[in-house]
Amino acid sequence: MSAKHYDALVAGAGPAGCAVALALQKLGVDTLLVDRPLAQPFRIGESATPDVAGLLERLGIQHDLARHRPYHGNLALWGAETPQLDHFLFRGRGHGWHLDRAAFDRMLQQETMASGVAFLGQSGLDGIAPADGGWRLQVRGLGETFARVVVDAGGRRSPLASRLGVARHRLDRLQALACHVDATGELSGYSLVESCPYGWWYAAALPDGRALVALMTDHDLARDLRLEQPDAFLSAWRGTRLLAERLPPPQGIEAIHAFAAHSGCASRAAGPGWLCVGDALMGLDPLTSSGISGALSDALAAAPAIAGMLDGDASLARSYARRANDSFSRYLAERRQHYLLETRWRDQPFWRRRGALPPASG
User: Which of 138, 196, 203, 306 could covalently link to 127 via disulfide, CB atoms 3.0 to 4.6 Å apart?
Assistant: First the structure.
């Protein structure tokens, strides 16, 4: 692949980046997709809600989700002394999937390349500067490249937009502490959620026979309680009710992996010659299980806005920004309502912080 001019450059090849590159290519937009090296092979974000299949079809992806595990709903011990089952069928929906996330991401990247998108993995942007009619970029492994529009699909840090001076608003310090264990318990196709004084637990069975177990808590609480340490993590796991019953903790764990899980958003969704999608646009609390669905939805909405930019029409980009603002406002209201359902530990810092959250505003 030689250096050249592109209509659009997409930075980040997760679900949002691949999906927007695919959608752009189908609109005839010559697109370069750039991905940075993966920081660590351990991945979370394995839940795909029932609408994901339809979103993949809208992107023209002939998916094979049968290799992944069916995800029928959530079993939660939250705000009550007995577990509550929220089955997707109760809402008139089919099942979702607990994904082999690495395989799912590879599938999206392969579909993207097969569509004709130029893809440069193990890369990244070393520089960006405005140029006549677009942007001059230094792409690792490619050199100087020109793109008329750049798309930030780089995750919760909004790394590309931040280089352009776009602020990122962070609403909390939620962190996911996660590990993989043998799935010896009874998870039965459901995500398990259990609240606790310092946050909440999550578990789901994965296609490879293991289970993902994650503790969601604030960064300072994790530090003070030493929950990043395997022994403290296991001790806290043993103190759960539903989780310890359905998935008994092992004798030991080699390592706990930490991931940012905070809620936040870019201060602007789009501007002259640039646009954000996926977590780079807005990062949502893992309670929603909507990361992949939201990424694909964003991409489908972003592609015509980007095509409009290339044609000199900014109206669709403004509509995209209004859509993002409305979505985040709804999310804030729903998030606040859900956390307020748990009253048993309202005097604890984790829950007091969520109870004090202001109501959503436009």
Answer: 138
What is the rounded distance in angstroms from the CA atom of residue 196 to the CA atom of residue 219? 15
Phi and psi at 184, nearest 5°, equal -90, -5
Is 355 within 8 Å of 346 (Cβ atoms)?
yes
DSSP string, 297-335: HHHHHHHHHHHHHHTT--HHHHHHHHHHHHHHHHHHHHH
CB 239 within 8 A of CB 143: no
Q: Which two tokens stand for residue 256?
A: 């706990």
Helix (H, G, I), strand (E, B) or coil at 48: strand
Return the DSSP state at 354.
Answer: H
Cα–Cα–Cα angle for 3, 10, 40, rounded to 5 degrees: 105
Contacts of 91 (CB under 8 A, 6+ apart): none
pLDDT, one tens digit per residue, over 26-49 is 999 999 999 987 656 667 788 999
Question: Which is nearest to 198 in space by CA: 181, 178, 175, 180?
Answer: 175
Residue 186 CA to residue 168 CA, distance in Å, equals 40
DSSP state of 254: S
Given a contact cutoff of 8 angstroms between Cβ atoms, the answer to whether 2 and 285 are in contact is no
Q: Give the span between the Cα atoms of 93 and 216, in whole angstroms.
A: 27
pTM of the model: 0.92
In whole angstroms, give the CA distance from residue 37 to residue 29.
Answer: 25
| 44 or 115: which leads in pLDDT | 115
Number of helices (H), then strands (E), belonging to the chain: the values are 10, 21
Q: For residues 39 and 86, give the distance between their C-alpha atoms in angstroms, rounded to a whole number.
A: 34
- 163, 85, 99: which is closest to 125 by C-alpha? 163
In this structure, the dihedral spanned by the alpha carbons of residues 231, 237, 239 and 244, taken in order and rounded to 10 degrees, is -140
Q: What is the spatial distance between Cα 284 and Cα 4, in angstroms, rounded to a whole number?
A: 36
Task: Quote the pLDDT of residue 97.
Answer: 92
